[in-house]
Design a protein that fits this description.
By secondary structure, the chain is of the alpha+beta class. Helix content is 44%, strand content 20%. The protein has six helices and eight strands, in the order E-E-E-E-E-E-H-E-E-H-H-H-H-H. Strands 1-8-3-6 form a four-stranded antiparallel sheet. The protein has a four-stranded antiparallel sheet with strand order 2-7-4-5, with no helix packed on it.
């Protein structure tokens, strides 16, 4: 059965890199999800409101947490195991719709960051896009990496990183098929924030 858990203001509910074993629904209080912006390296915070759930994607994907979850006030959450949450979700279509909305928002945020990087004058857009893909691949965020490398090859099929992007896309696809999101050995990714070598 789901368990109610209480946290004092300022408490850490889970930490970036923790195993994702539970899914949470905020009953009362306030929770912030803190993650790193890929462009600036600064922390970005998303607020969770009562009735909303968090920690879903990593738990369902069975890969480590991608953000810190911090109680911003005295907070009560309901903690579900993955089987418990799946049973509740299957019986309540509204939860499934909320999940789709959360995942859609996350992908839009990735797209927005990619578009923002591509608009920067100091680095060619194609280079920025390729480096974003490498960032995600290096950090084992394989579904994001696949999206970005596919975008690179769609918009820059003859770009100077096209060969490496194709190789990285293959690495990404194999990692997703073999390990799933957020798992597997460390990725040794070349050419991050560097110019391609001659003949590359």
């Amino acid at each position: 059965m789901p368990k109610p858990l209480q946290y004092r203001s300022g408490s850490l509910i889970y930490f970036h890199g923790d195993p994702a074993e539970r899914i949470f629904i905020l009953q009362n209080g306030k929770v912030n999800l803190v993650y790193q912006d890929i462009e600036s390296g600064n922390d970005i915070q998303d607020s969770v409101q009562p009735g909303e759930f968090f920690g879903v994607k990593s738990a369902l994907g069975r890969y480590p947490r991608e953000e810190n979850a911090i109680a911003m006030s005295d907070t009560t959450v309901m903690a579900f195991t993955v089987p418990e949450f799946e049973a509740v979700a299957m019986a309540n279509s509204r939860i499934i719709m909320k999940m789709l909305k959360v995942f859609s928002n996350q992908m839009r945020r990735v797209h927005k960051q990619v578009s923002k990087l591509m608009s920067k004058e100091e680095e060619p857009p194609a280079d920025s896009l390729f480096n974003v893909g490498n960032f995600y691949l290096k950090n084992k965020r394989f579904s994001h990496a696949r999206y970005v490398f596919n975008s690179y090859l769609t918009f820059h099929p003859s770009g100077k990183y096209a060969v490496q992007a194709t190789k990285n896309l293959e690495i990404t696809e194999n990692a997703l098929a073999r390990y799933g999101e957020g798992k597997g050995p460390g990725m040794a990714i070349k050419n991050i924030n560097t110019k391609p070598q001659a003949g590359a």
